[in-house]
Amino acid sequence: EKLFHSRDHSDVEMSSSHLAELITDTNTAQHFLFKYGFIKPVNWESTQSPDADTLTDADIFSEDTVSLVQEGRLASSRSGDSENPPESPDFVRALLEFQRVSGLPVTGVFDDATKVAMNKPRCGVPDKEEDQIETMETTTAAEDLNESAEIFNTTATPQSNNTDTDVVQNSTSDKTET
Amino acid sequence: EKQHHLQTLMRKTRRRKRSTGALWGHAAFSKSVLTWRLIGEGYSSQLSVDEQRYIFRLAFRMWSEVSPLQFVEDLHSPLDEIDIRLGFGTGRHFGCSQRFDGAGREFAHAWFLGDIHFDDDEHFTAPNTGNGISLLKVAVHEIGHVLGLPHIYRSGSIMQPSYRPQDDGFELDWLDRKAIQNLYGGCEGRFSTVFDWIRKERTAYGEVVVRFNTYFMRNSWYWLYENRSNRTRYGDPVSVQVGWHGLPSSGVDAYVHVWSHTTDEVYFFKGTQYWRYDSENDQVFSEDADGQRYPRLISEGFPGVPSPIDTAYYDRRDAHIYFFRGSMVYRFSVQANKLAAKSPQKMTELFPALTLGDHPTSNLDAAYFSYTHNTLFLLKGTSYWRVVGRRERKMKRSLPYNSLLPSREVQQQWFDICDVHASALK
């Protein structure tokens, strides 16, 4: 169990491995701004699928950030988007926007007030999302292609680690045999 | 195999939800009754299951009280047929692509027309229990996302992205209500009756003051309407049985308050019967001081008045009760205890329309004298007509007596009188 001593569990202790990473510097601040869409709007709806790969996983993003710092050059995330070095114009723009919407002094600097705000409990849904209607239409079109493949016995374009394609191919072969 | 099955289920669910189309020109659920379930493998380790389900029921009900949507907990249907699934997880959870970050920062996430996941590494607490993160507040926020609301950067909005420590009794404010109604429309519906209930109180100095409260009744439910706040009381509707002891549980047709220098009597009408209400003891009279027993037949207490009636009201200007039935109005003299001469008369004759064709004509739902507006209103369906009174005739003498101003929508005057699912009523 998580250790506690008070009747109301208010002193429940968390192991360090269960604590969220704090936003402490411009690198982690950049991660925050990227994750919640301030650097570029997030395609949040597509992440609902278990096999979605369009939003950078937190660990891998952190690794890329370290790589960026070590190598001193831009690195690409798994989604193919370019990252921004700390204090790049995009970073500053995103920081200004975050400060503005959060009611903070709009300084463009990663100051203490901004750090506190970023570390507050918050919802995981990005603040800036790609247009939802546009996203739905795109995804629906993609699924229509898969359905067409099933009906007309065409083979879907193979995608790595895409179980859906496996399903399409299996059902296609079953229909061919039938 | 389990992951493949889950992916197939989720793909089918999303396809079905998208095929339901868009409502009100925006992307939204197209049906008005939505099912939800706290999934069995997603219980929190911090609160009892009953507490979790209670909090979610309350969270859904709060949205139901301000929108035409109703929510029902469904414990029996196959999981892929549930509209909104909720669950607690930590780190990697439910095959979700978005890993939770541990204690601190992210407390939950949700998807439009989709599911809600709560980070069980956060210290969630029941409402009004001090430290921790209010599960109710988080749930209301995430349900807002499921219904189609984005984050809103406005102080006081439940859709702010960052968690604000809970104020005592947080509620959905005016702008949050309008935001959800932008997607799903306002609340509409007919009413059984509407009235202002007069209450006499004695101050600390011994003075008698008169106060009133406004009530809207629809079948077996009712709302108290707070005129100064432009909304109903938080937590309404309430069952008629709970608030009005002795009245029929299915509701009433009409309310009449006969109030004069010599008389102060309240009556409720339903079908062929009527009851007199004892406001001091907060229940109907079984027998009043005059020896009359209740319920009593309308034909006995008000000779000449047919039943059932559509609605009624007492007009203090002429000391008559106006009974409405069909297209006719029966004026009943309280002093003479009989119908007035010339009764009945057509509604269009006693209450002429100012705009040709703009008239309820028959089958009124309610005749409501409002002390807030000092005006009589006639309600039918989703529309109401304001009856020209002394103030209007002072400004424009040519207005006919008791004529009806052009109709307006009820929801433009009285806001957010919304049904909830019957299972949410206590």
Describe the structure.
The complex is a heterodimer of chains A (about 180) and B (about 425). With about 180 residues, chain A is mainly alpha-helical. Chain A is built from six helices and one strand. Chain A has helices spanning about 25-35, 60-70, 90-100, 110-120, 130-150, 165-175; one strand at about 120-125. In chain A, helix 5 (about 130-150) runs parallel beside helix 6 (about 165-175). The longest helix of chain A has 21 residues, at about 130-150. Chain A starts with about 25 loop residues before the first helix and ends with a helix. Residues about 50-80 and about 130-178 of chain A have low confidence and may be disordered. By secondary structure, chain B is α+β, with helices and mostly antiparallel strands. In chain B, strands 2-1-3-5-4 form a five-stranded mixed sheet, with helices on one face. In chain B, strands 8, 9, 10, 11 and 12 form a five-stranded antiparallel sheet that branches. Chain B starts with a helix and ends in a 13-residue tail after the last helix. Classes of the chains: A mainly alpha (about 180), B alpha+beta (about 425). At the A-B interface, strand 1, helix 5 and helix 6 of A face helix 1, strand 4 and helix 3 of B.
Give the key terms.
heterodimer, A: 178 residues, disordered C terminus, B: 426 residues, alpha+beta, 19% helix
| Strand/helix succession of chain A | HHHHEHH
Into which percent range does the helicity of residues of chain A fall?
40-55%
Overall pLDDT level of chain B = 91
How large is the count of helical segments of chain A?
6
What structural class do you assign from the helix and strand content of chain A? mainly alpha
Record field, number of beta strands of chain B? 26
Oligomer: heterodimer
Give the helix proportion of chain B (percent range): 10-25%
Q: Estimate the mean pLDDT confidence of chain A.
A: 65
Radius of gyration of chain A: 21 Å
Largest interface, counted with CB-CB under 8 A?
A-B, 48 and 55 residues
| Structural class by SSE content of chain B | alpha+beta
State the separation between the terminal residues of chain A, measured CA to CA.
54 Å
Number of strands of chain A: 1
Instruction: Assign an overall shape of chain A.
Output: globular
Instruction: State the separation between the terminal residues of chain B, measured CA to CA.
Output: 43 Å
Low-confidence stretches of chain B: 15-25
Count of DSSP-assigned helices of chain B = 9
Q: Which percent range describes the beta-strand content of chain A?
A: under 5%
* Spatial strand arrangement across the major sheet of chain B: 2-1-3-5-4
